Amino acid sequence: MSSHPIRVAIVGAGPAGIYAADALLKSDAAREPGVSIDLFERMPAPFGLIRYGVAPDHPRIKAIVTALQQALDKPQVRLFGNVAYPRDITLDDLHRFYDAAVFATGAMADRALGVPGIDLEGSYGAADFVSWYDGHPDVPRTWPLEAEKVAVLGVGNVALDVARILAKTADELLPTEIPPNVHTGLKQNRALEVHVFGRRGPAQAKFSPMELRELDHSPNIEVIVNPEDIDYDDGSTATRRGNKQVDMVAATLENWAIRDVGDRPHKLFLHFFESPTEILGRDGRVNGLRTERTELDGTGNVRGTGRFSVWDVQAVYRAVGYYSDELPKLPFDPVSGTVPHAAGRVLAANGSLQTGVYVTGWIKRGPVGLIGHTKGDANETVACLLDDHASGRLPAPAAPDPDAVPSFLRERSVRFTTWRGWYELDAHERELGTVEGRERVKVVEREDMLRHSGA
Questions:
Q1: pTM given for the model
Q2: For domain 110-321, which CATH number applies: 3.50.50.60, 3.40.50.300, 3.40.50.2300, 1.20.1250.20?
Q3: Please, what's the b/e burial string for 432-454 (b: 16 or more CB within 10 A of its CB; e: otherwise)?
């Protein structure tokens, strides 16, 4: 084992990558021989999913940034923002500069949904919509919001976020960090009815209790649940008894199902036991959704009943899960959308270990669970990395000098941002917010982000 500090590159500066850095900093190796960590992030700013995947009206989740920032704010850690793998730095480059590379690239694309009509105008992926309202610099600045009746497919937290943003008024969201173009766009939103569809029942919904209850906090949203959709079989009852979160979700839905419908102007319907079978269209545009009624089979799963309904909607948002991008030079399982691995060690196509390459977060386990669950992923991956280093299984890098990396990026004419640059961008966004009486206003344009980060 070499005496120089363990040099680790982490590709992706979202929660998964930052938790991996934190695990390295808290390890025994951080004391001897020491660790030196560089995070590479394709966006000019860090925090990944927290900045570009969490709805702006979730300040409690946004507060995770404070904890992540503390983890990054260490002398052993550097940030290289606006650096994309493999465009700006390749796997061979990482091997030249580092003992090990950890990929924490997450999942930002929509998982495919194989139903007819998916390509009609007015059929959208939830991930694209989330990127728009979160001010992602690489998506269009406008979003079509002409539909008065909208369907959202899926019963996870992303589906709730999409439904809530569509059902709220623009001015309700103005106190958040939404950029001016998003506020302007939402003011044109014509949605009066939002219908959320799940093919199974209340006990199988993937909502977290807090996210679900937040739907009912808006003075403009009337949440409606059909009493006929409250149904449980033996498998569902066992799930409720064994999972407090599931029981809380089911209890909330039951309470909404038995109450009288109020007069709030925007209606948000939560439908269960409705499996989407076709997105209907006319003249190339969405004009309806066909679903098949399902029923429980005793185990918590469902089967079709052969009874179909057509719903009058003019837009459909698919929130059926995220999907990771394939990473060049790394193996990829297209079914799960993950990199094959053994406890975080990347496995080559023939099943052998790909030396010095690791994964953590959603690219490792798929886009499931809450943000905090990635800590366990990071701890497992980092433990394997450190064990490999201690056992001498990691070849020493040819160019371990930390100064070699910024020199390399400058030679490649890569305009990169730094941790100090994040503080400068953060201060600028807070100043913009102060002018409008808000905590911050998010900068959207990549060029503006680079300029205010001192790239």
A1: 0.94
A2: 3.50.50.60
A3: bbeeeebebbbbbebeebbebbe
